[in-house]
Every structure is written in structure tokens, then in C-alpha cells.
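Q: C-alpha cells for this one, please.
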Amino acid sequence: MASLKVNRGRTLARSQALQILFQSEMRKVSVEDVLAGDYTLSKGPLAPYAIEIARGVSANRDRIDSALRAVSANWTLERMPGADRNLLRAAVYELYFQVADTLDAAVVINEAVEIAKAYGTDESAGFVNGVLGRIVRDRHLPSLQHVACTITAEDAEAACLAALWFEIDPKRLAAEEEAARAAEEARARFEADDYGFAEDDLDHIFNDPFDAEAGE
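A: Here is the predicted structure, written as C-alpha cells:
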């Protein structure tokens, strides 16, 4: 399995974004007001990517909060500790709007968990990991246990998995039919070669993306 390549500059930026978002919420002022005034950072100067995340969360707050409410019905946003809530918002922004590939998603989640350990409670890391895991499954972003899959797969399998992890335009029926055919062939080859994935993992990879978009 490939190792995660962590960009330390972005690690700091993610931590700074959390601090900006937290201060915005605690002061009951906008992100722009925080950025324009006096703000406190554990380590500076403020990174451009931190500003991008903070502004991105602010601009897409309703969508991000709706996604979080959908996967944390037993723990409302209002009940979450402030650090956890804003860390999740920042991570969901990245997963929705910044993630380009499998390892990107893995890094976002891994770093959110590490930041939760630094800024949250004893339970924060596990809580953040669980919520983001559900976000990944519901959005059909590549989950951590499948990172190795695209690296070990060859040719048709790799192409098929990549296609299924991204939304397919429902108007492109030929493309969808071709992906479905490739998926079935790839499933058979995975099962025959016994790559070690459980049946429900295969179902998640090959079936769910089509089902999730059926009603849209």
C-alpha cells in the first residue's frame, strides 16, 4: 500500500484554518472580519491555503453543514465541541471541493484526525474519523481501505475503479454502460485472483456509485 505523502505546509494551513473558523464562530463575526482584524494563531504567518479553506467553508457553509447533519444524526452540530465542528467543516470542504484523487482524500482525513488529537478532547480523533468516514461513503469518495486497490490493480481494473469513483453524467448512457461492463469484468477478475477484499467491499466499489445517482 502506498504511503501517504504529507505536505507539511498544508498541515500547518489546515491547523490555521481551524483556528480562523473557530474564532469566527466564537466571536460571532464573519471569516472576512476575522481575517481583516486581529486573529490569534498558534504558529504563523497565516498560510494562503488556510485562507482558502476558511473562505471556502464560509461560502459553502449551508451545504457543508447539511452533509454533516446527514451523517451525524445522533450528535447534532450544536452539541459538538467547537473545535470538532469547525475541523469537520474544514475537512468536508476539502473532500467536496479540493480532493483530486485517492491519496488526497486519505491525507485530508488522516490530518483531520491528527489535528483533532491536538485541539480536541480525548474522544475527538475517533469522532472526527467516524464522521469523515461516513462522508466518504455517502459521497462515494475513495475510502482509506481502498487506497491500495488502485495501486495494485492493472489496466482495466484501474481504469474502471477510477471511473466509478467519480460521478458519471447520466446523459452519457454509453459511457455508463461501458463502465458497468468494465465493472463486471473487473469484479470477476478480482474474485478469481482473490485480492483479499471482502464481498461487501466489492459491492461498495462496483455497485453503490450507480445506485447513489439513480434518483438525481
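A few notes: The two ends are 35 Å apart (CA to CA). Residues 1-6, 142-155, 165-173, 194-216 have pLDDT under 50 and may be disordered.
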